[in-house]
Amino acid sequence: MLKYLDKLEKYLESYPGLHRLFLSHKVFIKYFITSFLSLAFEIGLVYLLYIYGGVAIFWSNVLGMTADFIFTYFFSKYVFDSTYDKRGFFLYLGTSILGMALNTWILTWSLAYFRPSLGKKVAFWLGKILATGIPFFLKYFIRKYYFFLKGRKT
After folding, report:
1. Helix (H) or strand (E) holding 130
2. Of 61, 67, 4, whose CA–CA distance to 38 is shortest?
């Protein structure tokens, strides 16, 4: 991933306006890419557990989001160009638990509301889309504030 972002940055150097825009949003772009990859894995795991494994949506989502936490924790060091001490780890863990709680609540509510009229699979996908957006941005801004804007190397 780093290789492709470096190539894109090098290419955009010949377009100063786009290059400045890219540089001003580089952290968000890296966060978005790593989040997308971990989200694809998380959703796939939750879907398999819930739809085909018969595991309750609460536990399916908790297991999927725990896997997502492990994946994004290791890649967030790259995204925010930071290392973690105990305080940084617990902030990361806390934002993940907050995101998991919010995501699970939205997903559970969505399934209860949409499943009777749309069916199990469609309700799952609609619910997961709704449950992903809010926690994504909430975690991004909290983590960015702590790890990036403060300029900390924790």
Report:
1. helix 120-143
2. 67
| Count of beta carbons in the 10 Å neighbourhood of residue 3 | 7
* Residues 62, 81: Cα–Cα separation, whole Å: 28
Give percent above pLDDT 70 in the chain: 85
Mean predicted lDDT score pLDDT of the chain: 82
- Rounded distance, CA 132 to CA 94, Å? 17
- pLDDT of 53 higher than 70: yes
What separation in angstroms does the CA of 153 have from each of 28, 60, 80, 83?
18, 35, 10, 6
Pick the closest to residue 42 from 14, 19, 21, 70 (CA basis). 70
pTM, two decimal places = 0.70
